């Protein structure tokens, strides 16, 4: 056999290998191209229908008054939250505001708890549920975190890619809640690039600052997460934030321009008159048995305090428990101090941990003048409970220092004065000291505030109530229309 035969055989083998590789790669590439998500086309972007406030379809005509107007351009928005839609009030309010101005909304997130009834009944809002990650990926073990977290992120990336790319029509805008940032920002950025959609990030906080609560600020994953957030922030064309302080951080550290759209209460939150209050308190299963004690006609009316939470690491409820034990002891030595009914509403990971602490304090008889209950209420009952309470409590510590607790906004909407953890930069953007609330920075200080507001300083509580009632006049619609309406070109 000649040398040239060896070379020819070898060449043939290599050539057929290269050819096979080329066919495989080009087939994969063609499949990818063919299955890419459909691009946004403004001429296809029709509102489903035009409805009045009751949801009745309206026939909208063109300027000549004869031809029915069947579509308007550029009014479709994908709203994305990698969390439970029912527990994402701000994203639900965005959806309602966009739909109110005839925009069509795809609301994408987990469907776990009850969604705002106005969203469910709105024909312009379609809910696109994300599939939950398998149970084993949801473990909260710190030890397994470095292994499970990337697997969970991969699972979430695939389900987000499917929901954003195929589960909803191409949209002109995509409004994404941050955090969670991983993998949300990367997938949202990719889909927007592929679909010709403009990305808007709604900054509620910084993802890396929440991760730092779990792993410590110097952990490499926290550093990677901070870098990731900075890089993908650039994929967005617009940024909105919950505070002016956060917009400033984005400008200084991320080099992007953002506009603050402050949280304001939705219309479901409104003050109660005394009759509405007593009716509600005697009907709600959690309060019914205490309604006579809470009534102003009782000898020393109990005080009702409410805190709401997602039971996450950024809220230290042992502070409230410790303050309530101190208060209880003070009420034993000073019988003119009223008893307290404290209701903590919400769902979340650390609830069982704090329920155990409450049981322990009760066993030790440290809460003899205080009853602590926990609850998860319908949106209407939650709003009514705030409107019936005497004082709201916020334990939100703000992992970044520049985000704010939504619960305080709810409380102001219901005309409820607030005392809250106030040792962070953005707090004064929401609560005015001694006007509509008070800030504390330790359990001892909170206990002192409870003793003084419910005891000698009853006048101050009245003043704070007036301040909160005044604050309840600032509404979400006014804030949103001025900023969101303009951004999404809806007004
Ligand atoms: N329906 C219902 N909702 C409840 C209940 N209890 C609490 N909630 C909902 O849960 C929210 C409080 O959840 P948190 O997770 O404690 O929110 P936050 O700290 O007050 O604020 C969050 O959102 C802000 C942006 O809007 C963020 O800036 C902030 O960092 C945080 O993520 C309330 O505003 C309310 O919507 C209940 O019993 N029933």
UniProtKB/TrEMBL annotation:
Lipid bilayer topology: Single-pass membrane protein
Keyword Hydrolase recorded: no
TM stretches of this protein: 14-36
Keywords: Endoplasmic reticulum, Glycosyltransferase, Membrane, Transferase, Transmembrane, Transmembrane helix
GO CC annotations, alphabetized: endoplasmic reticulum membrane
Top-rank taxon, per record: Eukaryota
Protein name: Chitobiosyldiphosphodolichol beta-mannosyltransferase
Main localization of the protein described in the UniProt heading: endoplasmic reticulum
GO molecular function list: chitobiosyldiphosphodolichol beta-mannosyltransferase activity
Enzyme class: transferase
InterPro entries, sorted: ALG1-like
Annotated organism of origin: Ophiobolus disseminans
UniProt subcellular location: Endoplasmic reticulum membrane
Enzyme Commission number(s) of this protein: 2.4.1.142
Keyword Zinc belongs to the record: no
Pathway: Protein modification; protein glycosylation
Function noted in UniProt: Participates in the formation of the lipid-linked precursor oligosaccharide for N-glycosylation. Involved in assembling the dolichol-pyrophosphate-GlcNAc(2)-Man(5) intermediate on the cytoplasmic surface of the ER.
């Amino acid at each position: 056999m000649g040398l040239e035969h060896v070379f020819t055989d070898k060449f043939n083998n290599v050539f057929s290998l290269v050819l096979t590789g080329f066919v495989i790669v080009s087939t994969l590439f063609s499949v990818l191209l063919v299955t890419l998500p459909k691009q946004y086309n403004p001429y296809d972007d029709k509102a489903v229908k035009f409805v009045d406030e009751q949801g009745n379809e309206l026939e909208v005509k063109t300027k000549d008054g004869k031809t029915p107007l069947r579509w308007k351009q550029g009014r479709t928005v994908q709203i994305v939250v990698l969390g439970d839609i029912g527990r994402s009030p701000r994203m639900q309010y965005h959806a309602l505001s966009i739909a109110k101005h005839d925009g069509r909304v795809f609301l994408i997130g987990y469907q776990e708890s009850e969604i705002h009834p106005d969203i469910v009944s709105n024909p312009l809002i379609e809910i696109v549920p994300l599939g939950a990650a398998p149970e084993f990926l949801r473990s909260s073990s710190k030890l397994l975190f470095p292994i499970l977290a990337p697997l969970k992120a991969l699972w979430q990336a695939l389900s987000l890619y499917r929901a954003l790319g195929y589960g909803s029509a191409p949209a002109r805008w995509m409004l994404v809640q941050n955090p969670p940032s991983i993998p949300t920002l990367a997938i949202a950025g990719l889909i927007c690039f592929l679909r010709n959609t403009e990305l808007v990030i709604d900054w509620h906080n910084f993802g890396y600052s929440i991760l730092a609560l779990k792993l410590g600020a110097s952990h490499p994953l926290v550093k990677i997460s901070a870098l990731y957030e900075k890089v993908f922030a650039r994929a967005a064309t617009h940024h909105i934030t919950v505070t002016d302080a956060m917009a400033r951080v984005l400008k200084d550290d991320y080099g992007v321009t953002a506009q603050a759209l402050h949280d304001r209460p939705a219309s479901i939150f409104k003050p109660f008159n005394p009759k509405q209050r007593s009716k509600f308190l005697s009907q709600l299963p959690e309060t019914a048995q205490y309604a006579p004690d809470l009534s102003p006609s009782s000898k020393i009316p109990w005080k009702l305090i409410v805190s709401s939470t997602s039971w996450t690491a950024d809220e230290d409820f042992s502070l409230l428990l410790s303050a309530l034990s101190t208060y209880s002891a003070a009420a034993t030595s000073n019988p003119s101090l009223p008893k307290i009914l404290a209701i903590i509403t919400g769902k979340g990971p650390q609830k069982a941990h704090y329920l155990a602490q409450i049981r322990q304090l009760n066993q030790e008889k440290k809460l003899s003048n205080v009853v602590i209950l926990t609850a998860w209420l319908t949106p209407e009952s939650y709003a009514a409970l705030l409107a019936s309470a005497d004082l709201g409590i916020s334990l939100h510590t703000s992992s970044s220092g520049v985000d704010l607790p939504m619960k305080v906004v709810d409380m102001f909407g219901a005309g409820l004065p607030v005392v809250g953890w106030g040792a962070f930069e953005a707090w004064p953007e929401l609560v005015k000291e001694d006007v509509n609330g008070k800030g504390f920075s330790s359990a001892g200080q909170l206990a002192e505030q409870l003793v003084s507001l419910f005891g000698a300083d009853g006048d101050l509580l009245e003043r704070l109530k007036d301040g909160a009632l005044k604050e309840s006049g600032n509404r979400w619609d006014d804030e949103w229309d001025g900023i969101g309406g303009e951004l999404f070109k809806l007004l």
